[in-house]
């Protein structure tokens, strides 16, 4: 069985980490990552929610910030590689036509390791 | 309860919750000193309670509640020394707590934090006091570290902050919920103050120094503002601008501490993560189609960031953006900056002609003489170049700037 492990934390806290503290957390995670290397798929670190944009599908309304409602549940995600936010929104709108209701949150990816290889040479975010 | 494996996790949580907690306590007590004392007391109790009980789910809410109650108890104890306890005040305490919890919704604390930051950038305060106050009160940096950042003694900084607070106490702090026009005004003042904090750190040559940490702090404040007010394109622009400037931190100075010009920097040292986040912020801001000075400056910085080599720079685009900036925020400094694009596009003579009218207004400005000396040097007008660099060195604001100009002078001698 394949699982996604979705990471939640309070940004007030994570954004207060110094670069050194951030690096220490990543270092701790790497140890786990190395131990389970054979079991790892893609690893992604998202940018802060301040970089997010949300498309409400039925109303076709674009708002700044993350999807913050609690009535809906997270059901899946796509990773797209595009020139800019405009193109990403265009894709999202076409998907919204195919599957109306709910919302898409577009959040840029800060770091990604497609094959889950040990995050050895990670540049500091 | 098991503790999360985080570095100094209590300290980090207290720092993270601080702006929100102090802002709410300020609304409650309408007094900066009382708010700070209440927060301090709450932090002390957190240090006692959290290691045993684990962190509360809502750290800021916990600190606000505990801080508020501690301050009320303190007041009541003082009152008891002079008068009988006020039964009514005690009996409605539970209700007051319920009301406070209710008021802690997102809409409220957005304005709380905006107010707290706005109080720190009161127009009566000189820029250095605004920065010191924001770092002390909003960010919670110890006076010792702020003093180190400003290269003054602890006592002098303590006095400076005390004076700034006294000034604010005399002024009227606006506690009513702001209307759209006032909110926009506060927003502009707060943006300018955040950028001041950033620039204070940006001018420091030592990437490990106290001042460099101010850049991170300014970026944190801008991200915080955007989480509270997500649809403000100028705040997106400011965050992008600071991220782009900060992305070059490791490339901006040589080993001796002399400043390195953009075109001579080792671009592999630029922080790609910060650049990527900045480009994402600019994308978002552009969807609003409300350009402003921060967005335009960020767009200029982004064109530099996108160029892998200096010769790949889109100088035509940069020139167009500077023209837009001249329309939005006209100033001789903007024209001076644009002259660099004109130099790259049309040669040093055209640039020199362009900056000639700036000689009056920018006579006391380091960069004017630096740019002018550079252009004269390129044109082979050595003695004029030497004079210009001489003026620049006399006006240099930091040793890094002076060291950079000295290199030019050495080259002219050689």
Automatic annotation (TrEMBL), chain A:
It comes from Lutimaribacter pacificus. Gene3D superfamilies: Dimeric alpha+beta barrel (3.30.70.1060). This is Uncharacterized conserved protein. PANTHER family: BLL7171 PROTEIN, BLL7171 PROTEIN-RELATED. Residues 1-109 form the YCII-related domain. It comes from the Bacteria. Belongs to the YciI family.
UniProtKB/TrEMBL annotation, chain B:
Residues 118-168 form the RNA polymerase sigma factor 70 region 4 type domain. GO terms for biological process: DNA-templated transcription initiation. Pfam families: DUF6596 (PF20239), Sigma70_r2 (PF04542), Sigma70_r4_2 (PF08281). Residues 18-80 form the RNA polymerase sigma-70 region domain. It comes from the Bacteria. InterPro entries: DUF6596 (IPR046531), RNA_pol_sigma-70_dom (IPR014284), RNA_pol_sigma70_r2 (IPR007627), RNA_pol_sigma70_r4_t2 (IPR013249), RNA_pol_sigma_r2 (IPR013325), RNA_pol_sigma_r3/r4-like (IPR013324), TPR-like_helical_dom_sf (IPR011990). Residues 186-286 form the DUF6596 domain. GO terms for molecular function: DNA binding; sigma factor activity. This is RNA polymerase sigma-70 factor, ECF subfamily. It comes from Lutimaribacter pacificus. The lineage of its organism: Bacteria, Pseudomonadati, Pseudomonadota, Alphaproteobacteria, Rhodobacterales.
